[in-house]
Amino acid sequence: MAITENPSLKNLIDTLSHAEAADDRALLLLSGSGDALFANPAGDALLRHWSHGAELPPAMRAAMRDAPLYLRRPLPDAAGAELICLPLDDRAGQRVYLFRADRPTPEAEAYRLIRRFAVHDLRSPLQALLATTEGQAPALSAAARTALDRITDILALSRAETLAELSCAFDPATTIAAVVTMLQPLAQSRQVPLVFDPPPRRAEVQGPEPIFRLLAQNLIGNAVRHGAGLRRIRLRMELDRPGLWTITLEQWQQAGTIPRALLEGLARGTAETSEGVRLMHAAGQILHGSWDLLSRPGEEAIALSFALPEAADLAPAEATPDAPPHDLAGARILIIEDNTVVRDWLAQAFRRAGALVSTAADGMAGLLLAETAAPAFDAVLLDLVLPGLDGLSIARRLRLRERRGRPRLIGFSAQDDAETRAACAEAGIRLLLPKPLPAAQLLTRVAHEIHDLRSSEPPMDQSPAVPSSPAQRIALFSDAIVQELLTDLGTEGARRFMGRALDEAAETLRALQEQGFGAKTRAQLHSSVGSCGITGLRLVEACLRRIQDTGRESGALAPRYRELAEAIEQTRTALTDGGPLGPSPTGR
Questions:
Q1: What is the pTM for the complete model shown?
Q2: Which domain holds residue 413?
Q3: Is 9 exposed, middle or buried (0-12, 13-18, 19+ CB in 10 A)?
């Protein structure tokens, strides 16, 4: 008999259906193969959240497989959810699995999001701290960078569905050294001697580094705050058998100063201990470690030992970043960032590397700079959250007007979750860098992008050219920009906006013809290029740019003026006589 024909199952589903209105919970009933047999609306949302539109994650399947009959069991990595295994037919081995979870209120969900973004927002002040201290206060900069790593750990822990998602290749000695460096300012302020003895043998291992870092920070931090005498952190690494390392972290201090109750709390995690001790106990459990008390003349230590496999074939990208393939000499870079400290620090870092840097403090100013730059910027580094116009909107506009791959769009943001990355990719942002980021890493990543740009470009003039044959001329309008204007402004609003840009181009032409190519007309020409660019007047913009290039080279400008006059006339005719906006109601 099929499971769906089982009378017991039908009775259970009927009971759940009637309980739906009264029970303020998510209810979900699955078969042994993971098929949904019943779900109320909240249960359906729960299933989508767990499966992400595909299959149940391995941790959920393991929980179903190991669930005892009739006993409620909390689910791993699913706070507030529980599982009950129910038999339908013992002879056939049929089981169903009832999941129940509290239905989150809108306020609870909003609070969860606020907590998540509050952690993200810690990145911005840390970037400002790095900007202030880098190159001037090395110890403080190192502490800030390690604090950034801790925020990254917290974000990873908040997003991970399973422990396997936290696993990475890492060097335990490097992790401990970073934690000690971060805590040195605290130790110095308390006049506490804190030293680290790295292991003579070092290796890359595979495991949950965020858990190890969290444990080490609490262990060493407690030693600084509550220990006595010299605090010595020792790390031992021994190859237990091929491919498996035994790691022992020891925190030494003055003999007779470690409470025996502390070791008991670390080993058992009793409710009477502090939150910090319970946290270290939980981390030790995840690492499958054992706690011990060591002693030698005048000193004693708390020690944790655990085993991790050796990392296989660590990719070079995981290690210390390579030096930039080329320096940034002559690279044209625009930085759009509203935080003054961060913007100035970024500009200074790129200028020291040889780049030609322009900056903007808001989105609209940044867009105008990027749209009108001649030649185009090699890269635009833009914050995603900006006043006036956000970074994603800027990226979409610049992608439509890309000139031979320029500019490369590089996002710089405290938000680095999967949703943000997907939105950046859709907008044309090639690279999303986390905020904060040390200068060396930032310069390396941007240098790689510009190196790729330079190595891929063909040997030809960068500016858009206007072919001499009218039959070969480029399009009058940028269809994508025109469509965007129609969506934002409506037909008549778009027509007026484009008409003003066209009138500005005509006025620029008259000024050039009367005054020639000079300082005053160059500024007017620069403004007109931007106006035509953001309104989609593609042919007129190309002609204006050709005048710019010819004027800089002291070439003959009269033929270029004639081309511009012709382009203006053609564009005006198209705008009034049935171009991309349709015929004008006034016939003008």
A1: 0.42
A2: 324-456
A3: buried
